[in-house]
Structures are given as structure tokens and as C-alpha cells.
Specification:
mainly alpha, Phosphate transport regulator
Length: 206
């Protein structure tokens, strides 16, 4: 195995940016899901599955690069954590779409669109932030805003749960819908994990 003895292995930055851009693609598919009929949702699920596979490929590429690089731009454990958290976001978004299709959900409860809007905004911010890892500049506002969005997502999630348990849904429907909104909440948590990892990296590099 040939080691690269350059001062910094810059390809990691490009791979993180590509992974984040793919998450934006996933968030847009979530937005499409809101206005789609049953047939449209099945087609969106196929595209989301392809995006999730692309995310897996991006994550594996980062891990491969990590294992074959002698010098890395920042701590190895932080590279691993950042790549894993980005991958988690895509996994949760894909799972949410898949559950909507598998459960034949006709109407998503009011409030899910707010969850998805928060995820879409977090995706945009994350994609904008990844290229800044090269210089470690202009990142503070990113992690502050993503943490604020995660708090907003928590509030939306609690309101959704209260709505689901208000007695208007039968028990089976509650179980289906709760699983979907819970997975969307996990996606919001994963965005926060990414932001927290970026903050940790920036502090170490300062």
C-alpha cells in the first residue's frame, strides 16, 4: 500500500461535500413526498433508495480513504464520526419514505410538513458548511442554527405526538404514523450530531 505523504489529504473535503449534497437531494425527495399520490410516492421511494445507496457509497469511500491515508486533515475519529452521522441522516430519511409506502399511509398528519421543512433547511446549511472545513471559517453560525433547528424539530415532534394520541386515530394508525414521525425526528437529531462534530473539529483545529 502506498501512503500519500502530502501535508494534508484534501480529498476528504470533497467527499464530505458530496455526501452533504446527496442529503440535500434526499430532503428534496421528502418535500416531493408531501404532495404525491400513492403511485408517486412509490416512485419517490425508488429514487430515495437510489440516493441512500449513493450515500452509502460516499461513506464507504471516506472510510476507505481514511484507512489508506497516512496523514489526515483532522483527527481520524472525527472523520469517522462525521461520515457516520452524515450517513445516518440519509438512512433515516430513506426509512421514513419507505415506511410511508409500506404502510400505505394516505394522509400524513398535520405537522409532518413542518418536520420536513426543518430537515430541508438543515440539509441546505450542512451542504453549505462542508466546504468550509477546508479553512475552518464561517462555521459558528452553522452549528448554532442547526442546533436551533433541532430544538424546533423537538417541539414539532412533541406536538405531533400529542395530535396522534388525541383519540381521533385508531390504534394501528397511531403506531404507523408514530413510527414515521419518530424516524423524521431521528433525522433531525443526526443533523445535530453532524453539527456537533463539526464544532468539535473546529475547536481542535483552532
Amino acid at each position: 500500500m502506498r501512503f500519500r505523504l502530502t501535508p494534508r489529504e484534501t480529498s476528504f473535503y470533497d467527499m464530505f461535500a458530496a455526501s452533504a449534497d446527496n442529503i440535500v437531494t434526499g430532503s428534496k425527495l421528502l418535500m416531493e413526498l408531501l404532495g404525491a399520490d400513492t403511485a408517486g410516492r412509490a416512485e419517490i421511494a425508488e429514487r430515495m433508495r437510489a440516493a441512500e445507496h449513493a450515500g452509502d457509497d460516499a461513506t464507504h469511500a471516506i472510510f476507505h480513504q481514511l484507512n489508506s491515508s497516512f496523514i489526515t486533515p483532522f483527527d481520524r475519529e472525527d472523520i469517522y464520526s462525521l461520515a457516520s452521522s452524515l450517513d445516518d441522516i440519509m438512512d433515516f430519511m430513506e426509512e421514513a419514505v419507505d415506511l410511508v409506502v409500506l404502510y400505505n399511509v394516505e394522509d400524513l398528519p398535520k405537522g409532518v410538513e413542518q418536520q420536513i421543512e426543518v430537515l430541508a433547511r438543515a440539509a441546505e446549511l450542512t451542504a453549505e458548511a462542508m466546504p468550509n472545513l477546508r479553512t475552518m471559517e464561517n462555521l459558528t453560525e452553522y452549528w448554532i442554527e442547526v442546533n436551533r433547528l433541532e430544538n424546533q424539530a423537538d417541539q414539532i415532534h412533541r406536538k405531533l405526538l400529542a395530535h396522534l394520541f388525541n383519540g381521533k386515530y385508531d390504534a394501528i394508525e397511531v403506531l404507523k404514523l408514530k413510527q414515521i414521525v419518530d424516524v423524521l425526528e431521528e433525522a433531525a437529531d443526526a443533523f445535530e450530531h453532524v453539527a456537533n462534530t463539526v464544532e468539535t473539529i473546529a475547536v481542535k483545529e483552532s
